[in-house]
Design a protein that fits this description.
The chain is an alpha+beta fold. The protein has a single domain, classed as 2-Layer Sandwich (Beta Polymerase, domain 2), CATH 3.30.460. A hairpin with a 2-residue loop joins strand 4 and strand 5. The radius of gyration is 16 Å and the shape is globular.
Length: about 170
């Protein structure tokens, strides 16, 4: 894939992500909370079809559960998953609750990952730090690394986008 094709793919995936957020009412369900879209969507480095959102809540258990029920009642998702990383902590995962929404959009599988956390400042600051170091050249390098990850069928658990950012941006 040429540089232009990679950049075009990234912009098309981001455009689709914006449509998904509106059509599937993701931000509407979360409107009562302080939430922020982070990750590749926010820093305009989309290659994979996923959207990351963090939600700040004083009662993350209650608010994540109530939001989960709202998403289920929408009946717009192929699959909805819920994870409890408060009682079942895992390495490299924040202490919170997660809702994963799986959907088909334009014939492609998408995932929306929503973390309910007591604090979202660290996630937002990390995103801002990455964004501040981006240039035209290293954006393209990052997208090419994401393309390689896909071509070689490397899972995001093995090589997360964050690891790619750290490597390319030397942070």
């Amino acid at each position: 894939m040429s540089d232009e094709e990679i950049l075009f793919r990234s912009s098309e995936i981001r455009r689709e992500a914006s449509e998904i957020l509106e059509i599937y009412k993701v931000t509407e369900v979360l409107k009562e909370f302080q939430s922020e879209i982070i990750g590749s969507y926010k820093i305009d480095l989309m290659y994979d079809r996923d959207i990351d959102i963090v939600v700040k809540s004083d009662d993350i258990e209650r608010d994540s559960y109530e939001s989960l029920l709202k998403f289920i009642k929408l009946k717009k998702f192929m699959k909805v998953q819920y994870g409890n990383f408060v009682n079942f902590p895992r390495k490299n995962r924040p202490k919170g609750y997660i809702i994963n929404l799986f959907l088909d959009y334009n014939g492609c599988n998408w995932e929306v990952e929503i973390w309910f956390l007591k604090e979202i400042d660290l996630s937002v600051k990390e995103n801002d730090k990455i964004n501040s170091k981006l240039s035209v050249e290293n954006r393209l390098t990052i997208l090419k690394e994401k393309q390689k990850r896909e071509e070689f069928n490397i899972s995001k658990n093995e090589l997360s986008s964050y690891k790619i950012y750290k490597k390319v941006l030397k942070i």
